Structures are given as C-alpha cells and as structure tokens.
Amino acid sequence: MALLRVDFYSHYLERNVVLTVVIPADKMDGNKLAKKRRGPYRTVYLLHGLFGQDVDWIDRTHVVETAEARDIALVMPSGEDGLYLNKPEINEWHGKFISEELVDFTRRLFPLSTKREDTALAGISIGAYTALINGLLRPDRFGSIIILSGAFMRDRVLEAVESRSPRKRKYYERFFGDIDTVIGSDKDYVALIDKFRQDPELPKPRFYAACGLHDSLCENNRDLVRLLRDADFDVTYWEPDIGAHEWPFWNAWIDCALDWYAPGPMQPSSADVDYTALTKLRPPEQQG
C-alpha cells in the first residue's frame, strides 16, 4: 500500500489544492511480499465533512486497511468547507473540479480504472451532499454513490429564502452562492432526480446509504432514500438503532460501504460498538 500526499494546481479553482491518495500497490504478508498489484484499480473519491480535511479519513478511521484488503484506491481531496458545488453566478466551479478535473488528473497520474462501474463518489455529512449532487450530474463517470449521515439541506435553504433572515442567508450562501437560485438548479438534488424520471436513457448510479437512528439528520436521509427509490434507483439503506453524527459510526460504516462496493474481507472496527454486525440483522430491503 502506498500513501501519497499530492499538491497540484487546479485550473477550475485557480489555486493549488491538496489531496491524499491511497494506492494498493504491493500487498505484504508479514515480512513477505504476498502479491504484486499494478491496477487498474477500482477507485473511491472520498469526501470529508464540514470543517474537515483530507487526512480526517486517515487519522480517524482504518479505511486504508479496508481499501487495501479489497484492492481499492482512495482519493481524498481537502474540501475546505466540505461542499463542492458549481456556482456559475460567481464563476466558481468546485463541482467540476471534483467530477472532471480531479478524476482526470488522478487517472493520468495513477493506475486507476476508467470504467464508471469501477468509480465511486462517497462522503459524510455535507460531503455526502457533495457526493450526491456531483454523482447525479455525472452518472457517466460515477457508477456508485456512497452516502453516510448525509446533510441534505434543501429544506433549510427554502426556509432561509422564505425567512429573509440576513444571518441565515449569509450562512447558506457560503455553501450555495445565491440561495434564491438553488431550487430547481443543479444544486438541487430533487430537480436532478427528476431529470432521471424524464430521461430513462440516463445511466443510473447505484446508492449505498447509512444513517444512525440517533442522528439528527436521520429523517433527511429517509426522505432522500424514498425519493431515490420512487425514481427507481437501486438503493441499499441501513438505519441502525444506535449511532449518531460521529466518527465512530463513520469509521465502522465505511467498512460496510466498501464491502458493498467491492466485497471482500471485513476489517475489525475500532468503534466501541460493533456496527458492522448490525448489517446482518435483517435485509436492507426491510429498512428505511
């Protein structure tokens, strides 16, 4: 396994950006080289949450070991506010950076698969909103979307617009730009899902979602899952009766998500509770 820190100039963002990349190069078995791997690798573009950074996944989870066991490459950009959306009204193209430039750059630099079925976009909290929007905008690139404890703020944006509160507007404009233009735009996942209803020829990514029952965002995740299923998306959803908006939950559930994406040996969770065991209680079709 190779762990790399990459710093490169983004033409879309017009500045240097930092990311962490994990490539499952040579697998070790004790002191012996067990297997040489050269790719092309399945890839997960893994996004952090609000106030986070790329190394959060390295510092707070064992996702590296889990990905290595499955021969998965990980690309973890540092997203500053955690929400990469296009804002054409102010000429900012953070979404295109994620779905176009970052994918193209890493594929040129590393032995990554170019197949959509081998390319996933994943995120936690606000990073899950990013994964949802950009995955729906580029279903030709991302065959899978992984959502953990997604912060789906569409209703809150509507409230901010209707309230005309300067404080609320300022808060949400840091993420969305002009909030008066969000609903019905490419920042609105309801509008994007409707496009798939209108055009059955669009390739549909499959979804994996999980949110703890004690997470304050649980109802938002249920609503999204219902919306996706009503539009005939393939959705696997888990809602355990423990787990809040916290790293112990994400640490364990990223294992479950990667096991869904590329089945392989599970890694033992470092969480106090064995969340991964909960996925064996009942089939996902009976949840959500």
Automatic annotation (TrEMBL):
Coiled coil: none annotated. Pfam families: Esterase. Transmembrane segments: none annotated. It comes from the Bacteria. Gene3D superfamilies: alpha/beta hydrolase. This is Acetylesterase.
